[in-house]
Amino acid sequence: MLTKNKITAISNGSNVCADIVGFDFNDYDAQDVAEVRKIWFQYGVVRFRDIDITDEQHIKFSHHFGEAVIHPKQLQEGAHPTQKEILVIANTTKDGKPSGALGNSEATWHTDTWFYERPPAGALLRAIALPPTGGDTYWVSMYQAYETLPTYLRNAVKGRQIFFQSVYDAAGGLRLNKQEPKSDDIREWPGIVHPLVRVHGDSGRQALYLGAQGVREQDSWIVGLPMDESNDLVAQLWQHTLKGEVFVQKWRLGDMVMWDNRCTMHRRDSFSPEHIRIMHRTTTAGERPV
């Protein structure tokens, strides 16, 4: 009788991400999934290397970490032709139109759909086709961002809430079904209020929650503060966060990365439009931040 491989986490030189070794996507049980979940909660980001799985296996595995949710890009150019749960991130075209989301441009630091009432808990991203260079993805721990705050900033964020506008995306474009606001004051725009420091629904740990680093000068407001004070505090929090440890994923075929959207932020490098990059992603439902 064959003995199953022991599932282990191997540090790749980062406290933000670990490689999971010994998980068999063709033969696993609830105990195996529990072990992966434990490692995921510890690091926030986990990576599987040298795997060869189908979209169906990708989706099945995702279901163990929560109900599937549709990413807003799937309602536009990122829809998969046959698998409704998969977001296609690609710079390919079909009949002169994009056949994937995000193209080849840089994606700035963000937490996924931070402007939703219930942002997703997690995402699983798998490499299908890669350019020879570029398109690297970066993650930072928002646990670490909060836990390393100097005392004066820890006191400044205590009990605070942050408002995120939902009219423009991080690239400055109007979101689907949104109209240009009549006021210049973002506090009067459609949006959502979340805690500036959220408690992770599973680990119980606290994480700083900043939303996204957009191209606009101002996309958020710390509720109750004068706008200039809010802008100054937000800027300090971003500066502090991005001084923290960053995990850099240099993609290779056979990689799948799963991240916890409740306690991490990520960004992506641009790459040459002469090369193709195709990624398949699933997204799992999360709780309202508290």
TrEMBL record:
GO terms for molecular function: dioxygenase activity. SUPFAM superfamilies: Clavaminate synthase-like. Residues 16-283 form the TauD/TfdA-like domain. Gene3D superfamilies: Clavaminate synthase-like. It comes from the Bacteria. Keywords: Dioxygenase, Iron, Metal-binding, Oxidoreductase. This is TauD/TfdA family dioxygenase. The lineage of its organism: Bacteria, Pseudomonadati, Pseudomonadota, Gammaproteobacteria, Pseudomonadales.
